[in-house]
Amino acid sequence: MSEASSKPISSSTDSRVVQATGRRKTSVARVRLLPGNGEAKVNGRRFEQYFPTEDLQNHALESLRSVSRQKQFNLDIRTTGGGLNSQAGAVRHGIARALLRAEPDLRPVLKKAGFLTRDPRMKERKKSGQPGARRRFQFSKR
User: Fold this and answer.
1) Domain hosting residue 56, numbered range
2) Per the domain annotation, does 134 fall within a domain?
């Protein structure tokens, strides 16, 4: 990793703005950590409105809670692709990577909890001449 990529990305308004990208399956989340009081917006909507269930909210903020930084940062998140569960996983990954850029000494905690690992599983493509990705037509001897 180059030296330039390990430094926080600066913004014209505040030099402590940190950006990172999180991914899970086919979902991508661009996360911006800004100094603040714990407010979060996802695609321009309130966090609780975008992730309606408590399970999704907890899953998305799990990496932030594991290092007790919920009230220190405001989150501005842009997410695309996949479903809500996959997007929540991508947000979790993005927050962990942004925290790592903001505070490199958090790496052991985030790594041990598994927040820095991307979930690479994706749906396998359907092959031509078959009814599905792995499924074959029923064999008929006659």
Assistant:
1) 3-112
2) no
24 sits in which H/E element: strand 18-24
What pLDDT tens digit does each residue of the chain (142 aa) get? 444 444 444 444 456 889 999 999 999 999 999 999 999 999 999 999 999 999 999 999 999 999 998 899 999 999 999 999 999 999 999 999 999 999 999 999 999 999 999 989 999 999 999 999 999 999 998 8
The DSSP bridge partners found for residue 78 are 30
> Domain with 92 in it: what CATH number?
3.30.230.10
The bridge status of strand 40-42 relative to strand 73-80 is parallel
